[in-house]
């Protein structure tokens, strides 16, 4: 996508600000309410990372590097509370890995770098069958508004792999926060913060009970579906959209861009039109943007773009049923903390 240090006061407390939106959503219902991830995770090895030297490693990357190539057993890497500075990259030949922190407000992997939508992220995931829980991934570039640095790509996480799931994780940045590029991804109870295109890419992803915090005028999503036969798209179910400054729910980053929002509580200052075709003006018939069952002051649809789609009941059932849209082969597993 085109386009200082985080203050101590903001550094570890962001996750408490969306307790109220979650409470407001507690009584809403969704088609997929009874979904239970696969709990049959067998841990082959456990590694502990502790900044204070009381574990196997003090750096997350060193723990990952210790895992053998072509790993075929689930490896649990426990991260003790702390702010882990430096990029974490999980290569393609190291699948079946679980990163488990002690809470998204206390276990943080962060960088302060920008300029690349793929290489600047705090987390770069290239391996399939990955789980993360109770961790925040943060890129502090330009987060402190007293530093008026140029707006550049500064992702918190870049996902290049299939079969990745995130539970109670945070993704914090300004621009291109979550580079949801390739593969199937499941996000449960996650917090995603940004200003410009802060969930973008051509992933096939399901966001459930998540909070999207738009921190300035811009676009929440920029989905990049390229053709009619691609199964990709972003589906948001029973989530909260909060924030300040006028924002749009999404703009088309691909000619067949697809974003669906169901049963969301939208308190953010969403512009009445809601969506933008961006560089695909004149081809709006190929774009699929749809909303259903949402509430809150930002959910009014009377002035939405005229080309926003009206899906059938069957189409909504397909996309909001996690088994038909995402989990056809039962790959989604629970982290050990939920077992």
TrEMBL record:
Q: In which pathway does it act?
A: Glycan metabolism; pectin degradation; 2-dehydro-3-deoxy-D-gluconate from pectin: step 1/5
Name-wise, this protein is pectinesterase
Q: Which SUPFAM superfamilies match?
A: Pectin lyase-like
Q: What class of enzyme is it?
A: hydrolase
Q: Signal peptide span per the entry?
A: 1-33
Domain Pectinesterase catalytic as annotated: residue spans: 47-310
From which domain of life does this come?
Eukaryota
Q: Where in the cell is it found?
A: Secreted, Cell wall
The protein's job, in short, is: Acts in the modification of cell walls via demethylesterification of cell wall pectin.
Q: Which reaction does it catalyse?
A: [(1->4)-alpha-D-galacturonosyl methyl ester](n) + n H2O = [(1->4)-alpha-D-galacturonosyl](n) + n methanol + n H(+)
Keywords annotated in UniProt:
Aspartyl esterase, Cell wall, Glycoprotein, Hydrolase, Secreted, Signal
- Give the Pfam families listed for this entry: Pectinesterase
PANTHER family on file: ACYL-COA THIOESTER HYDROLASE YBHC-RELATED (PTHR31321), PECTINESTERASE CATALYTIC DOMAIN-CONTAINING PROTEIN (PTHR31321:SF85)
| UniProt family annotation | Belongs to the pectinesterase family.
EC number(s) in its UniProt entry?
3.1.1.11
What InterPro entries does its record include?
Pectin_lyas_fold, Pectin_lyase_fold/virulence, Pectinesterase_cat
Which terms does the record give in the GO molecular function aspect? pectinesterase activity
One of this protein's GO BP terms?
A: pectin catabolic process
């Amino acid at each position: 996508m085109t386009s200082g240090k985080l203050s101590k006061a903001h550094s570890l407390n962001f996750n408490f600000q969306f307790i109220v939106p979650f409470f407001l959503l507690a009584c809403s219902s969704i088609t997929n309410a009874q979904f239970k991830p696969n709990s049959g995770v067998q841990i082959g090895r456990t590694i502990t990372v502790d900044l204070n030297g009381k574990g196997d490693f003090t750096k997350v990357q060193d723990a990952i590097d210790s895992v053998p190539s072509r790993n075929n057993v689930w490896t649990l890497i426990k991260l003790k509370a702390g702010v882990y500075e430096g990029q974490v990259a999980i290569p393609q030949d190291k699948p079946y890995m679980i990163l488990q922190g002690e809470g998204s407000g206390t276990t943080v992997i962060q960088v302060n770098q920008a300029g690349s939508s793929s290489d600047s992220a705090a987390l770069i995931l290239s391996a399939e069958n990955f789980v993360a829980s109770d961790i925040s991934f943060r890129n502090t570039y330009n987060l402190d508004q007293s530093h008026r640095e140029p707006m550049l790509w500064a992702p918190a996480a870049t996902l290049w792999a299939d079969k990745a799931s995130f539970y109670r994780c945070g993704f914090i940045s300004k621009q291109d926060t979550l580079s949801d590029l390739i593969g199937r991804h499941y996000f449960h109870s996650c917090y995603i913060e940004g200003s410009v295109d802060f969930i973008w890419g051509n992933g096939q992803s399901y966001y459930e009970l998540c909070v999207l915090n738009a921190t300035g005028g811009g676009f929440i999503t920029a989905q990049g579906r390229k053709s009619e036969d691609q199964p990709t798209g972003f589906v948001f179910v029973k989530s909260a959209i909060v924030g300040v400054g006028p924002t749009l729910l999404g703009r088309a980053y691909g000619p067949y861009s697809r974003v669906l929002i169901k049963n969301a509580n939208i308190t953010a200052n969403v512009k009445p039109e809601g969506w933008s075709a961006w560089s695909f003006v004149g081809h709006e018939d190929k774009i699929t943007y749809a909303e259903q069952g949402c509430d809150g002051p930002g959910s009014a649809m009377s002035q939405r773009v005229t080309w926003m789609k009206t899906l059938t009941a069957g189409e909504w059932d397909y996309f909001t049923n996690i088994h038909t849209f995402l989990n056809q082969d039962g790959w989604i597993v629970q982290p050990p903390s939920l077992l």
